[in-house]
Design a protein that fits this description.
Number of domains: 2
Number of strands: 12
Helix content: 40-55%
CATH class of the largest domain: Alpha Beta
Strand content: 15-25%
Low-confidence stretches: 100-111
Largest sheet: 6 strands, mixed
């Protein structure tokens, strides 16, 4: 955790230094304003840590205000950095390989427009406006919950079972920012999907239990005749496994921690803790391998695993994962792909199992999504003879 925090602060601090350098190149001498700007940027670097400390101390109002400011700034700064670095790269390429392209305007002298667009002040303001527009669009996109439909045909499903509607939610991140209003939007889409079986694949909780406890009742109202099952993601361990378990149980979920649940005679659901639990000493090593060895070959087996990695072994028919959010803010999906070598959606893994990776239903950190809309996933399990 200390290594992860140190790496985050180093990278995030460097982004703030870049912003300050670009700001100084765009504005007149700042004078005494440098101190004010510097203190603000320092506060923003530390905001994610301060939010968690304030929340742990029970200062909910201060934590909420700082969370909206700090995480909103985080989304803006990421988009600003991406656009500014792209313009900086174009500026360097132009200086290295290209002469000035000239644009003749009617009745005016020829103008060297690339030099003007790629001047330091222009780069700052173009990146600033693009980031602001991206945040405005991303805030709206984060509220646009999509219902994604997937069909899977299997000869392990008896014909008399009909179509089984499995609904997945993942990465809601209930806490200081994702609260009643956003949750109601998500659960309205879940209800629209009419689940027979509701599955939550981690990071449902991202706040202290006493602050989000009233939200559990909204989950409990959802109807799922075949049951509601969940696993713990990495954020459930960050905020406290005991509080997270209490919330899930209050919400009506059965939490699977290296366990196998018999849903019907022909359907099983298995679930494992996120690897973070093992790293923190809260999950026994080898949990997933031991669980996979227990799966019966004759039933349709669904594995809930938060991070989208396939561990071979055992007759898994469908693995449901989340975690990567499709990057949440483009182009961060490039980094998640490098880390996991998988994108969101449905695919067939090397061992033949179906792997579905959800884009996430909520947001972590910045309350925005940019070119990565949130989703609730409806997976229809269809008996092979009835596929036609």
């Amino acid at each position: 955790m200390l290594l992860l925090l140190s790496a985050f602060l180093l990278i995030y601090g460097a982004m703030h230094c870049y912003f300050y350098w670009r700001l100084r190149g765009a504005l007149p001498p700042l004078g005494a304003g440098r101190l004010i700007i510097g203190l603000f940027l320092l506060l923003m670097v530390l905001a994610p840590v301060l939010v968690r400390l304030l929340e742990q101390q029970g200062r909910a109002l201060a934590a909420t205000l700082l969370a909206h400011l700090g995480f909103g700034w985080m989304g803006f700064l990421f988009l600003f950095t991406v656009v500014a670095l792209l313009l900086d790269a174009l500026r360097l390429l132009r200086a290295r390989w290209a002469g000035p392209a000239r644009l003749a305007l009617p009745g005016a002298a020829t103008s060297s427009w690339p030099a003007r667009v790629l001047a330091p002040a222009a780069i700052f303001w173009l990146a600033f406006l693009a980031a602001a527009a991206g945040c405005a669009y991303g805030y709206r996109e984060a509220l646009d919950i999509r219902l994604e439909r997937v069909r899977i045909v299997s000869d392990k499903l008896p014909l008399e079972a009909g179509v089984v509607r499995v609904v997945q939610v993942t990465d809601i991140h209930l806490g200081l920012i994702v609260r009643e209003g956003r949750l109601e939007r998500m659960l309205a889409v879940v209800a629209q999907a009419r689940p027979d079986l509701l599955l939550a694949t981690g990071d449902i909780v991202d706040g202290q239990g006493d602050n989000i406890a009233p939200l559990a009742e909204r989950f409990r109202r959802l109807e799922a005749p075949l049951g509601k099952f969940a696993i713990l993601g990495n954020h459930e361990f960050y905020v406290g496994a005991a509080a997270s378990l209490a919330f899930h149980e209050s919400a009506g979920f059965t939490v699977l921690r290296g366990e196998l649940a018999r849903v019907t005679p022909w359907l099983r659901v298995a679930g494992v803790d996120d690897i973070t639990g093992e790293r923190l000493g809260l999950t026994p090593p080898g949990q997933e391998e031991q669980l996979l060895a227990l799966l019966p070959a004759e039933t349709f087996n669904i594995l809930l695993r938060h991070q989208p990695k396939v561990v071979p072994g055992g007759p898994v028919d469908l693995q449901l994962s989340g975690h990567i959010h499709r990057g949440q803010i483009f182009p961060f999906n490039l980094f998640t792909w490098l880390a996991y070598r998988v994108s969101t959606g449905l695919r067939v893994a090397a061992d033949g199992r179906y792997l579905y990776v959800g884009r996430g239903t909520g947001t972590w950190g910045p309350p925005i999504r940019f070119l990565a809309p949130p989703e609730v996933t409806l997976i229809e399990l269809i008996p092979a003879p009835a596929a036609s």
